[in-house]
Amino acid sequence: MKSTARRRSYGVKGAPYAFLLPAGILFALFFALPIGYAVWLSLRKVKVSGLGLGSGARKEVWAGLENYTDALTDSELVSGTLRVLGYGCIVVPVMLGLALLFALMLDSEKVRLAPFTRLAIFLPYAIPGVVAALLWGFLYLPDVSPFYFVLDKLGLPQPDLLDGGPLYLALSNIAVWGGTGFNMIVIYTSLQAIPAEVYEAAKLDGATPLQIALRIKIPMVAPSLVLTFFFSIIATIQVFNEPTTLKPLTNSVSTTWSPLMKVYRDAFGEGDIHGAAAQAVIIAFATLLLSFGFLRAANRRQKQEAAR
């Protein structure tokens, strides 16, 4: 009897681990193992001896931190990082500002057709990024865009959105159009979780709808704003689909326009898999460091506000 009870006890205690085992295996095979392999590749390089002809002349050797040093001093990678920072300074504030505005409007008591409006705002997020970039790319082309046709008929100037400075606005527009709906849903869900008694008490105190939005709704959905900002920062650093898709349509987008585009070019275009691995590790580490620092600062601020 005791041995049977002991086996049942072990079975109950081991049940959670059994349920977690498939997820753990998938995590190890498709997340941890590729990361470890990328780190291993980044610490090695190919040494060419003689004329470099034949497989015997090329040998993989230990490189240590040499690939990381080359990546950090690579002017193309630095330039791509600066471009992405400028792109993010446009995308993140505009996208989150619109998401918050739409969420507050949908949460209003006077809004009509709220389910349809919510679906219409969210729908662009369901469109794949490549498809969205192609759609907007053709709308940016003067020869096929209906916008340029209307501007021409009205006698208005027709700026080239795929050249020079306007390119940042063109790429940012694609990201804002596709990402606002998701962030809006996250913020709107938090607004729906606020107890109705809070609004009733504010109305009894004579608060206007604008005061309720500024002093009650926005402060109470601050955690959701932090979460959406966190996701937006990660998506900005990893921008790849939009500039890569628009590249055949303009000469202003180079193969190294963003850091991930340079990693892809070096790995599959130049054949430098080891240098590309080092760059990828640096980008991943920078993303982790930036995200961790932001979340820590946000948590510290929330604790300070709670202490007050």
List keywords for this structure.
308 residues, mainly alpha, MetI-like fold, 13 helices, 2 strands, 75% helix
Write up what this structure looks like.
It is built from 13 helices and two strands, in the order H-E-E-H-H-H-H-H-H-H-H-H-H-H-H. By secondary structure, the chain is mainly alpha-helical. Helix 2 (66-72) packs across helix 13. It has a two-stranded antiparallel sheet with strand order 1-2.
Provide the helix percentage.
Answer: over 70%
Rg (CA only): 26 Å
Look at the structure and name the CATH superfamily of the domain at 74-271. MetI-like
Strand order of the largest sheet: 1-2
How far is it from the N-terminal to the C-terminal residue, by CA? 58 Å
Brief summary of the model shown:
The protein has 308 residues and is mainly α. 75% of the residues lie in helices and 3% in strands. It has a domain at 74-271: MetI-like fold.
Topology:
Elements: H1 2-42, E1 44-48, E2 58-62, H2 66-72, H3 75-106, H4 114-126, H5 129-140, H6 146-154, H7 166-192, H8 196-204, H9 209-220, H10 222-237, H11 241-246, H12 259-269, H13 273-307
Antiparallel strand pairs: 1-2
Helix pairs in contact: 1-13, 2-13, 3-7, 3-10, 4-7, 5-7, 7-10, 10-13, 12-13
